[in-house]
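User: Predict the structure for this protein chain, please.
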Amino acid sequence: MGDIFQQLGHLFVQTIPTVIFVFLLFVLLDRLFFRPVSAVLKRREEATTGALARARQQAETTEAKAREYEATFQAARQEVYRQREAARQAGLAERDARMREAREKSEKLLQAAQATLAQEVAAAQAELDRAARPLAEEITRRLLGRDTLTDGVGGARPS
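Assistant: Here is the predicted structure, written as structure tokens:
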């Protein structure tokens, strides 16, 4: 068994430079390769995470601006509808006023025409009455042969 320990000791002594070399290689690789690579990967992850956060923030800002734009657009559309309705109401009011004026004018013209017609009818009636009396007297005198239309008491009218 002593021989085995001696062989193991000899192997151990022979492996010490390899172990030291592997340890130094590990330290050198850690400092020269793994740490910079880890730092780059960490910065990359932070940049990616930061970029995603900025992208989310920009998306939220964009959505807020889109909502604001839509609200402004809707308000402008409502204002246009309101102005259109006001213009329509003003047009209807103007039309109604003109129709009322035209109706009043036509009423006045109709009343004037009726008054003129009534005057003409009265004048024509008076003219007919003036013309009919002498004709009636003439017809009566010719038919009856005497003057029946006298001064109202049955006697002869003086000529």
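The chain is about 90% helix and 0% strand.
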